[in-house]
Amino acid sequence: RCGYVLDPPGCLKDPNTRKLSGIGVEVIQLVGRNLGLKVEWTAEVDWGSMIAGLESGRYDIIATPIWPNASRARVTDFTRPLYFSPVFAYVKSGSKLMQLKNLAELNATNYTIASIDGATPEVIAREDFPKAKLLSLPQQCEISQLVLTVSSGKADATFVEPAVVAAYSKSNPGVMARLPGDEPVRVFPDCWAIKRGQMEFKSMINNSLDQLINGGAINKIICKYEPAPGTLLRVSLPYQR
Fold it and tell me: What is the pTM of this model?
């Protein structure tokens, strides 16, 4: 039984057919097929309610790959990663922030960072840029709303994946720009969340993921949904250095 959050490219829904697709959706369907288990799409939830559904037993797994963090780890457990997401700082093209010599200069009271309540951009802002102002959106908002908040001029910057900006840029080319710097602000594993204490279930899922990673199946699915080449990082094969 799967709960899911609509969050491209991990989980998408066709507005006409209501059919689900995305990296997490296709991978969990393969996992179910290999295990001989039926995949049931039990509930569409949001970032604020997804963990509560696990704790109450409403579903067994959140099939949208999400980022583990300390607050989530207190109440839930995670599978091994399906892939990794680098996070960079983005601003509106032509912004005066493009003239910053380094990212540390964003830590100033005259800049506003767009975030979602309790989400990763807020954590990054509080840890690395505590002097900047925060414009926090409700937890029910999709990640893409952060890009819209910056592109509309309501905030100066935000922290998101290249995949999010690449998807937005298909319809809005040249609107967003990444702040200078080759290194990401953070790199996060994209994992499935499960209820704590289910070690046998977790081991079963992890072994199934190993099979799909080592056989190249997950890489093919990522290539299918990746908004632009190189926006998502693959899990290293265990026998490669």
Answer: 0.84
